[in-house]
Amino acid sequence: MTSTWLITGATGMLGQDVLARLRRDGEKAVGLARDGLDITDADAVDDALGARRPRIVVNCAAWTAVDDAEEREADALRVNGDGPRQLAEACARTGARLIQVSTDYVFSGDGTGPYPEDAPTAPRSAYGRTKLAGEQAVLAALPDAGYVVRTAWLYGAGGRNFVDTMIKLESVRDTVDVVDDQRGQPTWTVDLADRLVRLGGAALAGTAPAGVYHGTSGGETTWCGLAREIFRLLGADPGRVRPTSSTAFARPAPRPAYSVLGDDRWRGTGIAPIRPWREALQAAFPALLDEKKGSAR
Prior knowledge:
Blueprint: E1 5-8, H1 13-24, E2 29-32, H2 42-52, E3 56-59, H3 68-71, H4 73-94, E4 97-103, H5 126-141, E5 146-151, E6 154-155, H6 162-170, E7 176-179, E8 183-184, E9 187-188, H7 189-205, E10 211-214, E11 221-222, H8 223-233, E12 241-244, H9 277-296
Parallel strand pairs: 1-2, 1-3, 3-4, 4-5, 5-10, 6-9, 7-12
Antiparallel strand pairs: 8-11
Helix pairs in contact: 1-7, 2-4, 4-5, 6-8
């Protein structure tokens, strides 16, 4: 059976939404979780693409444990660097396009304005270095058929994330301290999945050139600002969220102070950038609350 789309990391938060979007549109799609395809295994990757002959592969598989990567960079590199390389090389052999999901962590995080797609990369963490290696491998192996979509601050109903944590904490704590010195763009996985699918369609139609795109919501805020908006949507007092600094939450991996990504490249494809983050969060909230109720049952 020939499949138009193959999704790796299909049981993850983003992978679930990409599959759901494709199936809603009636597209042929196969989703493979890690137990169905280890992207670091070259033979397994060749077999998967050879048997299914996808026209597009969307790689949602990744090592996402940012802090663990500091001590296990070689392990993270196998997943985030070698894995995309295996996929890209297999796509080159079979003629498939590849969409590689990447991250804001490839930048230094000390910017003062949105990073354009062609801004110099300078990762400060092991996670960022491994994701950048994956980007470079895809673009080198597939100069005309490789697409890198960087995203940040993801949340959705299909996995653990900051929004999920704040919804839980609102019900059990009087106040919550949240960092207010990191700026970024909260991005709903449903919105990102939509853009990945649209980008794949445009790639097949020849209306989206290969290269780097940024897939984040419009606008920007801090983690504290996001938490206060979550409390507001819950009908709670946003003042219960108290601002603090990153030094109060020391982590092994440095967090980017500024993660805002520019999205100008979408405009040349006929695909609109993702909507503003507040609008998206409000639209997402019913599904996020339903997922919470389901988990509690």
